[in-house]
Amino acid sequence: GEKWGRHWLDVARYAESSGKESNVTFPHAWRYRDYVIKAFNDDKPYDRFIQEQIAGDLLSGSTPEKKAELMVATGFLALGPKSLNEANRNQFRADLIDEQIDTMSKAILGVTIACARCHDHKFDPISQREYYALAGIFLSTDTYFGTVATQGNRQSSRLLQLPIKDTELSGRKMSVSELSRLQQAIETQKEERSKIFQQARAARNGGEGDPALFQQQLRRLNTRINVSENLIKTRDAEGRPLSLAMGVRDSRRVQNARLLERGELDSPKELIQRGFLNVLGDERPVRLSYSSSGRKELAHWLTAEDNPLFARVMVNRIWSWLMGRGIVETIDNFGVNGKRPSHPELLDHLAIRFRELGYSVKKMAKEIMMSRTYRLSSVYSARNFHRDPDNVFYWQKSKRRLTAEEVRDAILTISGELRYNAPRGSGVSYAGDGAVGRNPLLNENSILGESFGSYRSVYLPVLRDLLPEVFNVFDFAEPSLVIGQRDVTIVPGQALYFMNSPFVIEQAKITAERISELQKSSKDRINYLYMLTLGREATDQELRIAQIYVDDFVIAVRSEGNGTRTSQKLALSTFCQSLMSCAEFRYIN
Fold first, then answer.
1. H or E stretch including 322?
2. pLDDT tens digits along 194-210
3. Is the pLDDT of residue 167 over 90?
4. pLDDT at 284 over 90
5. Which of 107, 321, 424, 581 is such that its CA lies 20 to 30 A from the CA of 230?
6. Helix, strand or coil for residue 247?
7. H-helix or E-strand containing 250?
């Protein structure tokens, strides 16, 4: 679930902040992350998995825990980047709906429906009317993303209250006395705000002071008051964090959307009846009830057996995650501008098998992994390379570089520091609400501190515009976009990361400490280090070179006044770092 769930989080553009001009945190986004991991661990049928993310709040849950899970699943629609400093509420809503349609269509259908916002799709058979038919469904849906009104956030939002009480803390607990002091501080700030407001009014009427300066003070005070009040609202009487989540819910007012000429709000045309795409189903118009938004019907339409793209898009994703490249290479675009499938019959076969296997991702992955194609060697063949240099027809297993998470997790495994259990919450949920870069708790050092720094990398906070260094260096998915397949680059920064990263240097030292405590010869320690880092024993030549390096290093360090034991640890530490830096560590043959 942690491995494959991360694949889906790439597709779902998972992040814990809004990004864009005003980058505000999403302290409760982690619940969706945990939902995805659990869904893959439990092998939740893919059709049900999608239905829950589109309309979980409209599906029935037998227990409070199940209802809470369904509500959390709709976080899929709430996690996207947002222009929170947008002053026009209607413009913000239109952009939010556009992002939801774009994510849903690319992730589930491999179709770029959002291209039809301003005009009929230039390439695919999707009209502007169909775009606004879908827009009406999301216009009838309220999105709860939970940000506090501040100087840079004009579009605050509430959160969904889950029908459960957390048994473990998922954020910072506050004592009753802290809550009381915070409430008193709010009252004091409100009194101060009233005084400044009076001074600002007097200044505008010709009194003393600068009205603009008073307005600036008022904005700062309002920000502090709003953040403090929100902190109290998200805690119970004992100061424990409430069970809150990002997600969606049907609006009280169900409505159709107006077609906007050129996508502009000031050019509205006729109302468009809510509905779906004609090209993927029956061309007869869909009649949706005004008692609900239509998301439940949309979820069932997306996952219907006669939808020609639903199963094909997902099996293509599974294939690409296992083989390194999709049968359709443009993973998120099956349209005219996407590439043709290299093996169309195979894609059809896998889609049919996926449905026969009950949309089980585990069974589908196993079937592919048991095939001859998956089990091919990565041994080079000049003859085959000449005929098929890009390995389109799978004459070998393509070599694969470790992902950013795998690099970091492998280093922690070597040092023995990796914690295999899952944490509760996230570094962001403990830091709380605030703007990234302004809140002192929202920087890389603090959110990757002692509490979360040793867990598997899937649990590291993903703040837009503030990713951990290892993510930036090793091609982590852009968290504002639907990313079905990550880029793989080879740049000097990757080698420099292993040479200079404090994290790598520290883990190499811890590894050297471990090895130094072993009652083994120098040769056996070097061999053990090769086993830890590269998964194999050292060759005789490598042993000789390593021993020469260690001996020379010890002599050099001892000449500077260090003891033998310290010198040996430093030698092993630097040698371990060099093994972590080598290409064999980063690439899988």
1. helix 310-323
2. 998 888 888 888 888 88
3. no
4. no
5. 424
6. strand
7. strand 247-250
What is the spatial distance between Cα 281 and Cα 263, in angstroms, rounded to a whole number?
26
**Residue 122 is encoded by which pair of tokens?**
């230039």
Report the DSSP beta bridge partners of residue 435: 24
Tokens 């930036």 found at: 472
Taking CA 233 as the corner, what is the angle to CA 231 and CA 238, rounded to the nearest 5 degrees?
85
Strands (E), 104-245: 141-144, 160-161, 244-245
Is the pLDDT at 450 greater than 90, yes or no? no
Q: For Cα atoms 426, 430, 433, give the angle at the middle one, nearest 5 degrees.
A: 105
> What is residue 304's three-state secondary structure?
coil
Q: Which two tokens stand for residue 309?
A: 């793209």
Q: What is the pLDDT of residue 440?
A: 63
pTM for the complete prediction? 0.94
Give the pLDDT mean for 295-304: 96
Query: Which residues on neighbouring strands pair with residue 160, listed in sequence order?
Result: 245
Of 42, 58, 61, the closest CA to residue 1 belongs to 42
Answer yes or no: are the C-beta atoms of 435 and 22 closer than 8 Å.
yes
Residue 322, exposed/middle/buried by CB under 10 A (0-12, 13-18, 19+)? middle
Judge whether 280 and 304 are in contact, CB under 8 Å. no
Q: How far apart are the first and last CA of the chain?
A: 24
CB atoms near residue 285 (< 10 Å)? 12
Q: Which residues neighbour 372 within 8 Å (Cβ) at sequence distance 6 or greater?
A: none
Q: Which amino acid is at 151?
A: Q
pLDDT at residue 449 in the model? 55
DSSP-assigned beta bridge partners for residue 260: 268
Query: Alpha helices of 87-175 — where are they, by DSSP H?
Result: 89-104, 128-139
Tens of pLDDT, residues 30-66? 999 999 999 999 999 999 999 999 999 999 999 999 9
Separation between Cα atoms, residue 531 and residue 274, nearest integer Å: 60
Task: State whether the Cα torsion 57-58-63-66 is positive or negative.
Answer: negative
Encoding tokens for residue 484? 């079905």
572 with 516: CB under 8 angstroms?
A: yes
| pLDDT over 70 percentage in the chain | 97
CA dist list (Å): 412 to 417, 462, 556: 5, 19, 29
pLDDT average, residue stretch 275-291? 84
